[in-house]
Amino acid sequence: MPVIETKRFLEGTGAKDIQVLVDNPTSCENVKRFLENAGYAVSIAQKGSEFLLSGLRERGATGRVSQVGEKVLVYIDGTTMGRGNDDLGTILMRSFLNTLKELDPKPWRIIFVNTGVYLAVDSSDYINILKEIESLGTEILACGTCLDFFNVKTRLAVGKISNMFDIASSFLAATHVIKP
Q1: How confident is the model over 125-147, as pLDDT tens digits?
Q2: Domains in the chain: ranges and CATH
Q3: Is residue 92 within 8 Å of 78, Cβ to Cβ?
Q4: pLDDT tens for residues 23-49?
Q5: I want to staple 22 with a disulfide (CB 3.0 to 4.6 A). Which of 27, 33, 46, 88 is the partner?
């Protein structure tokens, strides 16, 4: 959350200098890397378990600017992110989907296949997140064959039913593909 809150603050204010207070080394490193990628020179002061990051936007720095016509495709083929512990994978998937809302450019499409379609059905804990992403202009597609296979086609709660031609064509049209 510290990176997302910092990003939102900068987008809302366009600040040339910023100070961010975090309470752990991981958040410190993540915010530092984000600020540097956005064109800020960063210094860090540690006091106890707290870290104060001071960022000053370097003259002429613009950070990453999305290119016109970029099409980011997100391909999700399971209910968790990564392999190993499913409880951790569930936490990571929620964090990943929440983070998609903050990307620039926003994803063009999210495609759900195999057990990933369960994330888009009415019993999913992710429906509100996915509806929010969809409201930002991202198209959400769920594999019709997969929905049929798991007998959940009538329970699709977000997005639309798709087919393999649409899915394969999306890979060809995408400029970037993300697979969590």
Answers
A1: 999 999 999 999 999 999 999 99
A2: 2-57 (3.30.110.40), 72-178 (3.40.1260.10)
A3: no
A4: 998 889 889 988 887 889 999 999 899
A5: 27
